[in-house]
Specification:
By secondary structure, the chain is mainly alpha-helical. The protein is built from 20 helices and five strands.
Length: about 450
């Protein structure tokens, strides 16, 4: 009997076998991996080794793993495989996964693959391709099992059985009238529990649905909030077009969370596993943001140059600059992250901007009062009461300003149809650094009489 597989040992063995072109040993290692483990190992390999390892997978297992790869990794893998391998894998994908891959491929490769599809699969793929990027229509599956209200439960179950091989899911069956208008939904559980001779209209429930033009993240969050296995997708006239399954919804939300996390920290998402990314890809994801922030940081330099004379009179003021701008940046980032998250889950909307500003101003003022009191005590004891007042009042002002701006910026980003995360931490830190220094020196000038 085989011993339990040590994934770390197996990973090292696979890499060593591929490095020495020992395909027999590599195939033996892959054969002992579960599908999930094999997927994770493929994601960690380089371009050349990934293509070699993929060819060692069995046909059914290869398709299952390919469907779960990120679209960019799929694209790289397609361009590394033989044409016959690619055509077989491409035809085996569901229409929505096929479209996601086409979006990543060079135009010439995409056209060649589309021309090689059977007519029915090409038609289904064209349906999804007809919707704009970012809409849920482009992520829906047009392969589903539907029933009519006048069908018997037995007829509906027969349709479910006949669609097992092609439909994306059969656990939720949309119910449409003769004009394909969505009139209800019925779960497979309810069909199995009902009398076979009862009409579907008697067991169906009112449908929850989304329109095809809706933003994909909004639709996916709707699916997650409803806690349903699938959500019908309809056009403007409520005609059924396809379905959004919960696994696709969760993938959309995961991608959105990854993108927000990356942009909040001042970089672009890699859209691929870290160890599977090339060094240049990582550099590109960070370089533009660093350049933008470097340019923004010149504001801080300009502020310091304007108040250079003030610093010369009271050199001790320079000691507190890191504390003040650091506190302001952190306060703004906390507010921005909270509001960005609230926007994502629908807790706040752009029309709530005045309420958010008022709320964050009060939160910032409270934080500033607490931190300012502590700053006053420390600075007064170590240096002088006058300097204590400067630090205390500045912390009060900076925290109030930073929290207000931090809460407002994501909502402004949403209002102009930009990613709220882009308006979040990096830009807020730059703005608060400059504004905080101006406030600091103005308070110091007034209190110390400089």
């Amino acid at each position: 009997m085989d011993h339990p597989l040590d994934i770390a040992v197996a990973s090292d063995a696979l890499k060593q076998a591929l490095n020495h072109d020992d395909l027999t040993a590599a195939a033996a290692v892959i054969a002992r991996l579960t599908t999930t483990q094999a997927l994770e190992e493929l994601e960690r390999l380089g371009h050349r080794d990934r293509a070699v390892a993929y060819r060692l997978l069995g046909k059914d297992r290869a398709l299952a793993i390919f469907e779960r790869l990120d679209a960019r990794l799929q694209s790289e893998l397609v361009q590394a495989l033989r044409d016959d391998d690619v055509a077989e894998v491409f035809a085996g994908l569901s229409p929505d996964d096929r479209v996601a891959l086409l979006d990543e491929l060079p135009a010439a490769v995409a056209r060649r693959l589309m021309h090689g599809l059977p007519p029915r699969k090409r038609a289904l793929t064209d349906v999804v391709l007809g919707y704009g990027q970012g809409s849920i229509g482009r992520r829906m599956s047009p392969e589903y099992v539907a029933a009519r209200p006048w069908n018997t439960v037995e007829q509906a179950l027969t349709a479910v059985r006949s669609g097992l091989d092609d439909a994306e899911t059969v656990y939720l069956v949309p119910v449409t009238d003769a004009g394909r208008t969505l009139v209800g939904v019925v779960s497979l559980r309810d069909l199995l529990r009902a009398d076979p001779h009862e009409q579907v209209g008697g067991v169906m429930t009112s449908p929850e649905f989304v329109t095809a033009a809706l933003d994909e993240e909004t639709a996916a969050r709707r699916c997650a909030e409803l806690k349903v296995l699938a959500l019908p997708v309809v056009d403007a006239e409520a005609r059924l077009l396809g379905i959004l399954t919960v696994d696709d919804a969760l993938r959309i939300l995961e991608d959105a969370e990854t993108e927000d996390a990356a942009r909040t920290s001042g970089s672009e998402p890699l859209r691929r596993p870290y160890l599977g990314a090339r060094i240049w890809d990582i550099v590109k994801s960070r370089l533009v943001w660093l350049l933008v922030l470097a340019v923004g940081a010149t504001l801080t330099v300009q502020v310091l140059s304007v108040f250079e004379a003030t610093l010369e009179q009271q050199v001790v003021l320079s000691l507190f600059i890191p504390l003040l701008i650091g506190t302001g940046g952190n306060t703004g980032n906390q507010a921005a992250t909270t509001v960005t998250r609230a926007l994502a889950v629908g807790d706040v909307r752009t029309r709530d901007i005045l309420r958010v500003i008022s709320r964050e101003a009060r939160v910032g003022a409270t934080l500033g009062l607490l931190l300012g009191t502590a700053g006053f005590v420390v600075a007064a004891l170590v240096y002088s009461p006058a300097l204590g007042w400067v630090i205390g009042l500045t912390l009060l002002g900076i925290c109030t300003l930073a929290a207000t701006v931090g809460g407002m910026m994501p909502l402004l980003g949403k209002a102009i149809r930009a990613d709220p995360a882009v308006f979040s931490n990096p830009f807020i830190s730059t703005f608060v650094d400059a504004a905080g220094l101006v406030l600091y020196f103005l308070v110091a000038t007034a209190v110390l009489g400089l």
